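Final paragraph of the annual report: two paired records, presented back to back.
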Amino acid sequence: MGYPDTFEGFMVQSQDDWTNFKKQEFKPKKFQERDIDIQIECCGVCGSDVHTINGGWGEAPMPLCVGHEVVGKAVKVGDGVTTVKVGDRVGVGAQIWSCLECKPCKTDNENYCPKKIDTYGAPYPEDMGGVIAQGGYASHIRAHEYFTFKIPDNIPSEEAAPMMCAGLTTYSPLVRAGVGPGKKVAIVGV
């Protein structure tokens, strides 16, 4: 079939055989007005990917394509998208969707949304296709514009990709704490 009906990814079939990736097609969520299809250029590797596929964090739906440090080019944008246009280089991190209507979403805490969808391994509701979200070790990814970020031209894609995880994880608390010029901080574990 191929794009846009199916995407292709490197997928693990079982946590018992987590080092054996197979290239296969998968069905993306239903395209909606605020969605962006991204043709993936590169995807960083995070420890979370390993913990997910080897069972270190418990069971995960299989087969599964991991990867949440995604950078690529927007190849399709929904009619309601205002932040990205076709051809823009963009990135996606560990979350790909939330309702944007609940209290956590309205207070910039989308990662606590009871309906949130992680970039991989999370089920979409039936009205969005009922599929499992698949990650960035793939040909394409479909993401809501709110969780898709334009990448500045002066940052190479392979350097931007890790910023979609560790970079955001580190930056967000610094902003919340009001850290700025003249303040000292220590970041451990990045």
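The closing record of the year follows.
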Amino acid sequence: MPGATYSQHPLSLPSYPRGSHLITSDITTQLSGPLKGVKAGLLHLFLQHTSCALSLNENYDSDVRKDMSDSLDKIVEEDKAGKGIYRHDAEGSDDMPAHIKSSLIGASVSIPITNGKLALGTWQGIWFLEFRDGKHRRKVLATVQGERE
């Protein structure tokens, strides 16, 4: 019986504008080799940044991503008027709200692997949420663990 294996893979995401983005295909394309042959396992994705987030959510209707971004902007106020509502504001009015949103949503997701494929639900996809106005290159560390065929 084959044993469990572990491997880590640094991934790069394309630069995305502020908002919620479906990245399932980006992830599966970059991990096609490591996922192949995993009979049963787990993919852990860890975003190595503090002003963006990863989530699992609706993969079909893009309005869900727009509504999510709009809702988070309402929940976490941005100090565009410069009223000084945040102490940490040296990097711009979007920076501290980005840190708060990142803490609310989270920097990682774990997804089961079944027969070399991500075992996502019918309407689930992997989301990347960019909370800063400028485009940034973001890095994700993927850990693939599982029993190989």
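The first strand starts at residue 4 and ends at 16. This concludes the annual technical report; the extension proposal builds directly on these records.
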